[in-house]
Amino acid sequence: MALEIGEIRRSQVITTFGPGAIVDMRAQAKGGGPVSIVVAGIDEWDRSAQTGGKGIENAQVINEPRLQKLLNVKGFRLPPVVAKDEDGRYETSDRLVGVRFPTWLQCPSCHAIKRVKNWDRPPQATWDCSCFCAQCSDTKGDRIHVIPVRFIVICENGCLEDFPWDLWVGHKEGCQQRGYLVLRGTGAGMKGLMLSCPKCKAEQTMDGCFGADALKKYGNCRGRRPWLGDEITCDRVPRTVYRGASNVHFPVLVSALDIPPWSDEIQHGIPPLDWQRLKERDGVEKRATYIDATELHKRFNMTPLDLAKEVTRRLKMLEDTNDDTIRPDEYRAFLNPQAGSEREFRVEAQTVPPELAQYFQKILAVTRLREVRALRAFTRVVPPADWRDRGQQGRFAAISREKLDWLPATEIKGEGIFLEFNRATLQAWETRDGSESSPVVRAKQVDQGYRQEWLNRFPGEPVPRTITPRLLLAHSFAHALMRQLAIESGYSESSLRERLYVALDAANDMAGVLIYTATPDADGTLGGLSRQASPDRILPMVIGAVRSMEWCSSDPLCIDGAMAFSDSQSKAACHSCMLGSETSCEEFNRVLDRATLVGTPFDRSAGFFSALLRD
pTM for the whole thing? Predict the structure, then answer.
């Protein structure tokens, strides 16, 4: 039986709580027992919908032509939003679906763990999906709700299942009891956490259950995908993690900004479904006929033929769109903004303060922008190495049983600051070599760690990129600036996001950073962020950001790379200085090195902004 148990924000469905992610809820919102669910696949969006149409005919479809071409889909769907009546009850049945997981629950009083079906549940009439321990409730005179167990099992192919409790405890010969054990802490640490069978008295410590091969003796992963309700053939060795661990779900996100001509009134005035139907018609004449029949041209004071020609021109532009053109096209749009009124893309050039001229050659106040962020898949255990499934042997976990012609997405309308690095200074700095603290040497060390991890994960596959001093600098500066904005401007760091424009090839030589509002709510949509790009504000902001990176409370361990020892894709970076909100970072808090900004205590000149520290 399906029950309503809670709410999540629309934007979280694309990031933190997308299909395959585990969400903690509380039954009946107030006073109910805890319920842990895994968010179901997007197939359920149509299956459970009562209004709005199916697929791309749904009323909550959004359009972003470049991203649609890149991902080979016909459109994007916003997560369903359910309206409520005056009494707070849901008016429609269009809602997200979740499946209870894990299916083992534990009593916090007697420490028993059982499957859901073996616990007591409230009467159906209460619409309460929580469970409780009847024995402990009677003893204490109050309902004792059982809680989800803390351990689950995942694999690198994205599979998810319950921890093998009965196998781990090792029942004695002849014991037939299954699905009822006791997990009790008898001492410190995992060694003191004991799992036992009340019937045969078999006992086993949980120490060692997190080892990479701890479950290997039980065979390969069983390929269970509870968010899709099916199983696949899987050859991976499963591993134990905490249910709330950060490596249980990494979304694979792909995004694009609205830039001219895709950001103008014409593109946004054509409904997504009509745009798709125009794409399916060949030639100007057939498109003009469709436009005339639907009277689309009247929205723009154009003739059907003129609008058909404009649509055809744009479709021709899309033919050359691919992963290698998305960022360069946006970069050029920032550097060479088109004249005229753009509905979703407006930039204002700012005067670069003389003190910053040797570091930046262009600073822009982005007063209006729109980003469409689509969820393609997700990974477990390790973050995605690339948004494409290129070379990753199918390890992207699917968000639907069958490939659909649409993907879930959210749109962010906000503002930001764009900064382009001074090319002359940058080229002189990024080629500096000779000492261990030089940018070339440090970048090579990070690149070596990146390559080694890639080859360990995807043997024989070509490494997709090279970690350069320019990438380390741009990414580290973006984190430093976001932290400073959070301190001085009142923005929460999680409400900001970076977008890096870095490339060294001759066709697309890029060196820029965009910091923009990353949430679809009201935070930063009234001009407060873009206002920070003005000369009198950006100067102290940049100086403060750089100087805050000169010393870290974890130095000298941090600057020597010891704090990032477990992550070979970073150098001088830790939670005290560089690491930020994961929702703000394109690289999952990797590829960071504050020494590229300020140098090291033994060689400050190795930092790009070293002269700024002396002023």
Answer: 0.86
